[in-house]
Amino acid sequence: MTLSYDIHGDGPTVVLLHSSVCDRRMWDRQVPVLTEAGYRVVRCDFRGFGETPVADRPYSDAGDVRDLLDHLKCERYALIGSSHGGEVALEVAATRPEAAVSLVLLCAAMPGHVAGPELREFTERKKEFLAADDIAGAVELNLATWMGPDAQEDAHHLVRVMQQHALETQRAARFTSTAAPVDIGRITAPCLAVSGAHDLADFREIARTLPRRIAGARHLELPWAGHFPSLERPDEVNGLLTDFLSTTFPAR
């Protein structure tokens, strides 16, 4: 078992998977609400994020998460993923459909997705900043791209801190996560795919198409949200999460 993690509360297990801009601290506003609702909340840092060091060998984020869940002896669980964390959640749910019994995707990426023009442009601009060793510029590009209009200054500050730490840590990385091809049609869990009206087109399209790919999935677009709704309006998203879990994976 490799990943740094923490556990809060008792009850059915809910696993929180962070974006590739953030680390597990992005869920600080969700953890107390979910524990109060009766769940055992597990959150982790992927390799090169938060308290988990970079990899010294080839790996996959989904494989690391599966190893962590095995280590914790989690047999049934809900997965909540943001952006890249949503992609990881899809991989885990597709490879362990009997264990992943509820799935919430917040502006998720998707295995095998081919980037559109907006996402390609962002990626190229970020590469330019990093090639120039301008981490501060890359951080501000991330904030300008991903944070919706309702995000408060405390959310901006937290994302800035998390992304700067990740970029500085990953300077030493020799390996990046590799995703194996998966058939997300194997997912049997009820799935809520959330998109933000102010997000890039890639992520809005992924969320819209998931109900055609996963039986029983439904799509909800938040008109106020950018890429990180759980940081932008945490109270509203907490209500969405607890309502969905109460019907798909009840705590009591």
Tell me what the structure shows.
GO terms for molecular function: hydrolase activity. Residues 14-238 form the AB hydrolase-1 domain. Pfam families: Abhydrolase_6. This is Alpha/beta hydrolase. With 252 residues, the chain is α/β, with parallel strands linked by helices. The protein has a single domain, classed as Rossmann fold (3-Layer(aba) Sandwich). Helices cover 42% and strands 16% of the residues. It contains 9 helices and 7 strands, in the order ββαβαβαβαααβαβαα. The protein has a 7-stranded mixed beta sheet with strand order 1-3-2-4-5-6-7, with helices on both faces. Helix 2 (61-71) crosses helix 3 (84-95), helix 4 runs antiparallel to helix 5 (135-146) and helix 5 (135-146) packs across helix 6. The radius of gyration is 17 Å and the shape is globular.
Task: Please outline what is shown here.
By secondary structure, this protein is an alpha/beta fold.
CATH architecture type: 3-Layer(aba) Sandwich
Strand order of the largest sheet: 1-3-2-4-5-6-7
Q: Could you state the order of secondary-structure elements as H and E? A: EEHEHEHEHHHEHEHH
CATH fold topology? Rossmann fold
Largest sheet: 7 strands, mixed
Mean pLDDT across all amino acids: 96
Number of strands: 7
Our count of helices gives 9
Please identify the oligomeric state. single chain
Domains, number: 1
Strand content bin:
15-25%
- Shape, per Cα inertia axes: globular
Rg over CA atoms, rounded to whole Å, is 17 Å
**What low-confidence regions span 5 or more consecutive residues with pLDDT below 50?**
none
User: How much helicity do the residues have?
Assistant: 40-55%
CATH superfamily: Alpha/Beta hydrolase fold, catalytic domain
